[in-house]
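Continuing the series of single-chain predictions for the mutant panel. This is the parent chain; the variants come on the following pages.
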Amino acid sequence: MDNAGARTGDIVREAYSARSGEYVDLFGSMASVHPSDRALVGSWADTLTGPVLDAGCGPGQWTDFLAGCGLAASGIDLVPEFVDRARARYPHLSFDLGGFETLDAATESLGGVLSWYSLIHHHPKDFRTPLAEFARVIRPGGGLLVGFFEGRAVEPFDHAATTAYRWPVVELGRELAASGFEVIETHTRTGSGYRPHGAITARRQGAG
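Parent structure:
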């Protein structure tokens, strides 16, 4: 990670650490999840085999959900408070502290990666760095599911924690394709009371 990327990671970690209790109260359980998102992640999980990583697991609710789908799921997050909460609430699962730029997983060892709103703070010029690492650890044919803020242009906005970015589905799909993934499905949702949502399911392409 370059110096700018490292600084961004520090800013994100400190911002979420400062508001970790509030975040857990608002978003730290599956009760806060939109039914469509639960259905999407569940149907995606049904297509996977092998270990799955919840990248940006927060307090661990999605990791537990994936485990409930019958997958060997583990989580990783930058925020110590989230990892501590996840370990305490789901002691049967594995959670590690860290970012996505260098994952402690062997090449082509994972069946899939869930990145649910965990790349929203990455600057567009740094976006392919975690995608390249996801591509490294996911076996050919394995799956990636990315949730994000959808918009008409790639642009920053004032997120409650720190600066985040909106992505058009087409643009983010191009980033995935350039990183070795085949886009399978795209989903968007808009409505009163929340920012426009996007999700993309993708498959890791084989070498060559």
